[in-house]
Amino acid sequence: MSQRQTEPDESQEATEFQKTLSKIIQVSTLTAKRRESSIKPDVETLNSLSYDRGVLPADLNELINLVTTPNHLDQASLASIVRNLYPASTVSNEVVTKVVGSIGHGRSKPSLAIQGALLRWLVMIYHIIRSQGALARGYSVLFSLLDTAAIRYAIYLPSLPGANMLSLARQTGNDPALTGLLRVFKDYYPEIIVGEATRGKASAFNNSVSLEEIENADGFVKALETIELPNQLIAVLGDPLLQQLFLLKPDAEANQRVNNWLSSYAHDMISGDSDANPSDILATLRDYVSSTKNFPPMLFALISEYLKTWDGRGGRELLYNKLLQPLEAKALDDTAASLADILQFYTALLRRWTVTLASVDQLSARASSATAGLITHVNGLCLTLLQTSSSISTHSMVLDFYEQGALLMSGRYNSFRIRVVIPPSPLAYMLYFTPSPTTVSRLCGLLAKYKQGLQKAMSTSRSDYTPEYVNEFNGFLMDICNCLWRSRAFNTKDANSHGCLIPKHIAEDLSLYIKGLDTGASLASLFSLSHSPVLGLLSITYFRGLEDAELEKGTDELGARHAGPVTRATLASLAEDGGLRLTWDEYRLGVLTYLDQNGMGGVGQLMYNTMTTLMKKG
């Protein structure tokens, strides 16, 4: 009667155990945020069932798979599962092999805490392992990890067959090799009793392998965990094998040693005490960064010092194509700050190239292409930065770079046939539609210099610039002139005009909205000198200054003052009402002069270089 009642209960418990285990395994593939409920109650149920009935071989195999492979279970749950692994029968060789294989260092390995728990579990179930040979086969793995404090409990496992070695050592008359091995046991875990067996001569026993002993890739892989770093660690900069070791087995202390050497070398370079060839050092650093994916903090300082003495020719391809681009990829971290740092570095580099070009009589075609390549590359960087950060300081850094480039593309440098590389179209408009008058002025002045450079370049090498390329640049000029000077903002009917890249349907909707306000103004005029959100205040300030000056003469009083903003029609009405007499052209030219006097001459430079009616007056 009792037997018949027990069997259904055991069957029911087995079913419940398997269902709970299956659920935990399924949930382990999901992050905590994606789970519908907490996993902890299921883990508690599983542990309770394991304690009451034991774990059958098939279930034990699945649990070992769970705790030894990467998943999303928290460490507390995994540790709890390991502590409650109660085998219901002998433990298979496969399970032992999986546990031993999970021990060691690496991203795919369990945490050291879980590894320690698994090792303690192996010690407890040692006598119910189906074959002792299964553990013996993992002996070398466990022994090589004795120097890892967090899992040094592994000493108990080698020490179990070590009892046989103790007996063997006594039988062979204290063989030096066995004595040396037993001393290692004693040094790592004094609690293991080896008695008199460690006395007498002993062979030197090394837990580590030097790189010089590695002959091939297979040897490197087998000895990965025991390879000893060389005393002269700076060899990592030029040794591909050591670079791979740094990548596969990261070491904070070793990285610090490399950084210290770089700091020392940078100091020697600054002081002039270094005899090494800087180009050779840069080539070595390139290989180091590419292989180890590690970016030493001192590297920027080192390159900065190198640029101070660089002749601008030797090692150009190495510096830019092979070193700077990999460094950039490592330094960028999807933040505006990292983008800004890289941009400032490239600006300094371009400034150095400019100084170098000023000192040579003839420019090589290679140098010209490298300069154009740098600017083309930074075009994308600047566009990304502006989309990431819209601060005035960001705009200033972007303009710093292009102003440096404009020096190369215009003036005396143009005789060297530096290719004119224009900014991306969205970048020009993003800078123009900013709340800063200074930014707008600098952009206008920049485009004026680009226009001069492009005209000179095309006079000698027109074939280098396609009509589409030239029209894209002319679009910047036409659109800005349409906004500021012609009161035709966002117009797309003029030759080369792009409407500031504003989609036509959006411009039409904005135009209807402005008409609905019933202010008498049109969308096309709202970005003129008088109405511009950026330059409007400066324009009316100029006009009121003229009115104040007229009153100070004391001859005639003004019959009326202009309320602003100034238009062609309001100037005519003002004159009829006894106000200041000024033509529309006189007013606009006066505003350009006023802007120039207040440090914003770039607007006038662009107008005088672009508008046909103003070219004769400029």
Automatic annotation (TrEMBL):
InterPro entries named among the record's database cross-references: CENP-I
Transmembrane parts of this sequence: none
Superkingdom per UniProt: Eukaryota
Localisation per UniProt entry: Chromosome, Centromere; Nucleus
Broad class of where this protein is predominantly found: nucleus
Assigned keywords, A-Z: Centromere, Chromosome, Nucleus
CDD domains the record matches: CTF3_NTD_HEAT
Pfam families: CENP-I (PF07778)
GO biological process: CENP-A containing chromatin assembly; mitotic sister chromatid segregation
An example Gene Ontology CC term for this record: nucleus
Family named by the database record: Belongs to the CENP-I/CTF3 family.
Record's protein name: Mis6 domain protein
Organism name: Monosporascus ibericus
